[in-house]
Amino acid sequence: MGLPLDGIKVLELGQIIAGTYGGQILSDMGAEVIKIESPTGDLGRNPSVAPINDVSGLFLTFNRNKKSVVIDMKTDEGRETFLNLVKCVDVVVDNFRPGVMQRLGIDYSVLKACNPRVIHCSITGFGSEGEYKNYPALDIIIQAISGHMAITGEPNRPPVRLGIPLADLSGGLFSSQGILAALYEREKTGKGQHIELAMFDAMLSLLTYMGTMWLSNGVMPAPPGSSHEYSVPWQAFATKDSYVVVATREEINWQRFCTALSENNLYADPRFLTNALRVKNRELLVPLLEARMAQETTEYWMEKFHDNQVPASPVNHFDKAFSEPPAIENKMVVEYTHPQAGLVRMPAYPVKIGDIDSKTCTPAPLLGQHTDEILASMLSYSAERISKLKSVGAIHNQGDK
User: Fold this and answer.
1) Is residue 147 within 8 Å of residue 161, measured between CB atoms?
2) Hey, where are the domains in the chain?
3) Containing H/E element for 11?
4) SS3 97
5) SS3 234
6) Residue 98's closest CA among 58, 142, 128, 143?
7) Of 8, 31, 33, nearest to 20 (Cα)?
8) Which CATH superfamily is domain 234-238+243-314 in?
C-alpha cells in the first residue's frame, strides 16, 4: 500500500520557509515535489542560515524528498518549458510578492489555459490586493503585526517573538491543507482552482479563543510568560536545578499537587479552595509555591508528581526533548546523507496514516540536480533539446557553468 499522495506531482516555486514547508508536508505524504528554481536558487540556500558543513540547515530541512529543476523564467524558452511541465502536474505553489507571477506570464489564468485541472496555491504576506499587498512579509513582521508578539514573553518586559518562525510555518501548514481540500474537490468536479493564503490571516486565525475574547468581550490579554490567564497554578516553577511546569486545571489535580508538595494546608486554605479563587489570589499563592518548588530538584519533583498523577513536565531543551521515549517510539527523527552536508538528522512528519510506514527520507537537492532527469522523463525532451535549452540559458543543472 502506497502513501496517500503517491502519483500527485507538485511544482514548487516557493522559497525559504513559507513557500516550502507545505511542499515538505505533501512530499512526506507521497507527492513528488519538484522545485522550480531560478539560476541563483531558492533564497533559503543561503549557507549562513543555520549552517551544517557550509550548507543551509534551513534548506536541508524544508526541502527533503524534493527534486530541483533550474529554469530561467525570464527567457521565452524557459517560460515555455515551465508551462509544458504545468501540463503534467497537479499543483503549482508560489510565495512570490503579488504581481510577480503576472509579470512572468505564468499567473493562474495562464496555468489554467495549459491545464484546467491544475491547482495553483499562492502564499502572500497580506493578500494579493489591498493596502498592504507589498508590505514586507518577514516572519518577525507578521508575528508583530498580527498581535502574537504582544502576548508572548513575561509581563512588563519587551515583546518576544516565538522561538520558531510560526508565521512562516503557518504558510506551509495552511497551504498544504488548502491544497489537499482542492485535490479532493477536483475529484468531484474534475476542475482545478486558484487558492490563496495570507500569512497575516493565518496568524490571526491562530489567535483562536484569545482573538474571540477580544472581538466579543474586548478582553485585551497580557503576555503571560508561562502562566495561564484562567488557571492557577499553570506555569513553570524553578526547582533547585532547572524548571518544571505544572498544570492543575481540574480541582482533583490541585489536590494531588498539594499532596505531592506535602502542603495540605494550602489545599484547605479558603483563599485557594477553587480555581476561580486561585486566579483571584494568584499574587498570594504563586510565591508560596515558588518557594516550595525551589527546595528540591527537578528529578525529585517529577518522581513526586508521577506518583501522585499530577500533570507536570520538566522544561526540556532539545537534547532531552529528542531523547524522550515518545520521540523514539514514534520515530520522530529522520535522517539522510547529503553529498555536501553529510549526515543530516531532522524532525519527522508527525502524522501516522494507518499501517503505512513513512517513506524513506531523501536528501534536499543540489541546485538544478534533477533538471535533465525531469525534462527527459516528464516531457520526453531529447538530450539534444535539453542541450539547446542550456545553450540559450533557459535551464541549468548541477555542474553547469
Assistant:
1) no
2) 9-206+326-396, 234-238+243-314
3) strand 9-12
4) coil
5) strand
6) 128
7) 33
8) formyl-coa transferase, domain 3 (3.30.1540.10)
Cα→Cα distances 223→11, 164, 234, 274, 394, Å: 40, 17, 14, 24, 51
Q: Distance (Å, rounded) from C-alpha 93 to C-alpha 176?
A: 10
Phi/psi of residue 8, each to 5°? -85, 130
- pLDDT by position in tens, the chain (length 401): 689 999 999 999 999 999 999 999 999 999 999 999 999 999 999 999 999 999 999 999 999 999 999 999 999 999 999 999 999 999 999 999 999 999 999 999 999 999 999 999 999 999 999 999 999 999 999 999 999 999 999 999 999 999 999 999 999 999 999 999 999 999 999 999 999 999 999 999 999 999 999 999 999 999 999 999 999 999 999 999 999 999 998 999 999 999 999 998 999 999 999 999 999 999 999 999 999 999 999 999 999 999 999 999 999 999 999 999 999 999 999 999 999 999 999 999 999 888 777 667 999 999 999 999 999 999 999 999 999 999 999 999 876 64
Evaluate the CA torsion angle 197, 202, 204, 209 in order and state its sign. Answer: positive
User: Class of 9-206+326-396 per CATH?
Assistant: alpha beta
CA distance 391 to 389: 5
Amino acid at 210: M
Residues sharing a CB contact under 8 Å with residue 331, sequence separation 6 or more, in sequence order: 348, 358
- Nearest to 93, CA basis, from 176, 169, 165: 176
For residue 270, whether the previous peptide bond is cis, meaning omega lies within 30 degrees of 0, is no
Q: What residues are annotated to the active site?
A: 228
In terms of DSSP H, where are the helices of 218-281?
A: 251-261, 264-268, 275-280
Q: At what angle do helices 166-189 and 21-28 cross, to 10 degrees?
A: 50
